[in-house]
Amino acid sequence: MSKRIFITGIGMISAIGDNADACLASLLEQRSGIGPITLLPTIHQGVLPIAEVKHPTSVLLDMAGHSGSRNYTRTALLGILAAREAVKNSCITDIDEFRTGLVSASTVGGMDRSEQFYQSFVGDNRKGRLIDVVNHDCADATERIAADLGIDGYITTISTACSSSVNAMIHGSNLIKAGILDRVIVGGTDSVTRFTLNGFNTLMILDKRGCRPFDEDRAGLTLGEGAAYLVLESEEAVGLSQKHPLAEISGYGNANDAYHQTASSPDGKGAFMAMTKAIAMSGLSPSQIDYINVHGTGTQNNDLSEGIALERVFDQGVPRFSSTKGYTGHTLGAAGALEAVIAVLSIRNQVVFPNLNFSTPMKELHIKPVTELMTGVPLRHVLSNSFGFGGNNSSIIISSYI
Amino acid sequence: MIFINGLGAVSPQPNAGSGQFPFEFTKYDGNQLRCPDPGYKEFIPGDQIRRMGRVIKMGVTAARLCLRDAAHVTGFTSGPERPEIIPEAIITGTGMGCMEDTEKFLATMIRNNEEFLTPTSFIQSTHNTVAGQIALLLKCHGYNFTYVHRGFSFENALLDAMIQLRSGSVSNVLAGGSDELTPAYFSITSRLGHWKRKPVCNDGLLEDHQRGSVAGEGATFFFLQKEGTHNSYARLRDVRTLLKPGSDEKTGRFLLQMLQENEIAPADIDLVVAGFNGDPGSDAIYRNVITACLPGSAIAFYKHLCGEYQTSTAFATWFSAMMIRHRILPEFALLTPPPANLRNILIYNHYLHVNHTFILLSAP
Question: Is the pTM of this model over 0.80?
Answer without folding.
Answer: yes
